[in-house]
Structure to design on (142 residues):
């Protein structure tokens, strides 16, 4: 979804918010027509959620009250930062951009989640799941 981020149907910049525990972007990923959805990933009460808002009306706009939300992962422990943002100088080991992030500088986004490693009810260990993506439409370090 993030790799295919694009301008919103209402002209919104492809990255609407770049927070520590929330990211909002626009993407055509998984859509059959030329529609661009507003996608929001956020953490609330130790649960990772995904919210999707499809444009509607005439002219097309994103009615935030029509967002559909679903829990993605319900076992996140004590997250203070989940999303990391990098500019075009990112080399795989660079420091992330400092908050507040200027969304116009973001070229690469990483999510890192601490998840309990439950083998049995007494397990207390955790592991970290990390993934990242380059936003293709703004990639400028070919």
């Amino acid at each position: 979804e993030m790799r295919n981020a694009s301008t919103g149907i209402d002209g919104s910049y492809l990255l609407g918010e770049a927070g520590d525990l929330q990211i909002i972007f626009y993407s055509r990923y998984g859509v059959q027509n030329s529609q661009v959805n507003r996608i929001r990933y956020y953490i609330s009460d130790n649960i990772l959620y995904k919210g999707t808002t499809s444009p509607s009306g005439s002219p097309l706009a994103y009615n935030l009250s029509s967002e559909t939300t679903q829990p993605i992962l319900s076992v996140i422990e004590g997250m203070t930062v989940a999303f990391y943002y990098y500019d075009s100088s990112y080399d795989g080991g660079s420091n992330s951009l400092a908050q507040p992030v200027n969304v116009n500088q973001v070229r690469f986004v990483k999510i890192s989640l601490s998840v309990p490693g439950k083998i049995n009810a007494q397990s207390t260990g955790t592991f970290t799941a990390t993934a990242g993506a380059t936003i293709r439409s703004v990639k400028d370090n070919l």
DSSP finds no helices and eight strands in the chain. The first strand starts at residue 15 and ends at 18. The CA atoms of residues 87 and 106 lie 5 Å apart. The mean pLDDT is 88.
